[in-house]
Amino acid sequence: MSNYYSSLKNPPPHAMHTFPPSVFLRLFALSLFFNFAYSNGFKNVVTLAQFGTDANKYNFAERRFLLYDVNPGEGFNLRRDVYTRVANAVRQLRERGLDFVLVLPPWGNIWHWRRKKRTKIRWSELFDMDSLANFVPVMEFDEFVDVHGDFVETVLYLQNYAEGWPENGEYVLKYDLRPCIEADKYYIKRGHKWHGHFFDYAERFHAEDMKCLSIQGQSSTLATAVTNLSPKGRSLMVDRAEVILHDQFGDFFFWQARKSMRYAKRLRSLGDAFRAVQFGNASEYLGAHLRRADFVWAHRMEIPSVEGAAVQVGEIASKLGVRDVFLSTDATASEVETFAHRLAEQNIRTVTFSDVGEDEDLSEAAISIVDQWICANSRFFIGTHLSTFSFRIHEDREILGLDPETTFNRFCPDGVLDCEQPAKWTIGME
């Protein structure tokens, strides 16, 4: 059995490139170089010992497991933020002497993933498991099933209070077991077992009990609720974990949890090799994240047209003196062609990673991480207002120590020359 604190299974071997042999050999050699070059990055992670918690003082019989899930409609990058909230709840549970291990929910069936509907994607395909375990002990879901069995004792379904906020608008931290409001849409009891989606393992996994918790609070509130409501249970799943907030967004523990989410070495190496092949001097390019799809109607007053975005990128590139733009986008092929054509008129080249990602047989999640890594390492980054994809790039660039002036930038709507720019949530504020 593998170490419960991290996955010891290697990521699946990647498929052979479909590039010409000379290009493939360059990518392979550069991958080896960047594996070494980045093996010592992101050092500022916190260990359990620094929290005053002795990770070795527990015995196996005392070990407990916390699983979690979020609303099925939430996207990949919001889910990444929810991880930091739940991880901080687990940190606080451990500080109270409770030997909780955080069980990581497999990735899959995310609405934004249009090209490849993969399910049961392990975290080790996307993130460095040892780095995650430097913050709190973690394990893959399939490892949990191996050591615990194909069930969880209790599902704690988080929900808002049916009565809403009080009239005075005061936000009070509180929680109460209440009748379920909509959990019966997602869980059904057959005999003595509760059945639900359970990360696409519905046929082989169940819960012994399900309760609904109305909660108004944050990571610490959840930790208190778990301490009081499940004092002896060995396994607990918190569903709709996005309901809880950060204790304090941008504080010390937020950044330590976020820094621990280091990308898997294979994905960083692919991104670094791609940058070196495409751009030579690996940071002399502009990174742009242009959100389209549902943003075109949901936030149409806050984003530019494709042509308008190209104009803004062209102006920035000209000021910087760069002639390469890396574009990360969910735009259609025709929209990308329009964007690239407009920039080509200024002798500026547009590059995307998506075709390479397809050749590598990467999941949508892996492609998005490589996109974000490439944007994070650009000389200058411009993103999309309100996009969690852009938010994660802001955080990556902060962790890399890049100038906030080159990080916290957004596209303005057409016809607006000076729109409000993103708040600068810097590590220096922790």
Automatic annotation (TrEMBL):
Transmembrane segments: none annotated. Gene3D superfamilies: 3.40.50.11340, 3.40.50.11350. It is an enzyme of class 2 (transferase). Its EC number is 2.4.1.221. The keyword Transferase applies. One of its GO terms (cellular component) is endoplasmic reticulum. InterPro entries: GDP-Fuc_O-FucTrfase, OFUT2-like. It catalyses: L-seryl-[protein] + GDP-beta-L-fucose = 3-O-(alpha-L-fucosyl)-L-seryl-[protein] + GDP + H(+); L-threonyl-[protein] + GDP-beta-L-fucose = 3-O-(alpha-L-fucosyl)-L-threonyl-[protein] + GDP + H(+). It is found in: Endoplasmic reticulum. The keyword Cytoplasm does not apply. Pathway: Protein modification; protein glycosylation. One of its GO terms (molecular function) is peptide-O-fucosyltransferase activity. One of its GO terms (biological process) is fucose metabolic process. It comes from the Eukaryota. Keywords: Carbohydrate metabolism, Endoplasmic reticulum, Fucose metabolism, Transferase. Belongs to the glycosyltransferase 68 family. This is GDP-fucose protein O-fucosyltransferase 2. It comes from Globodera rostochiensis. The lineage of its organism: Eukaryota, Metazoa, Ecdysozoa, Nematoda, Chromadorea.
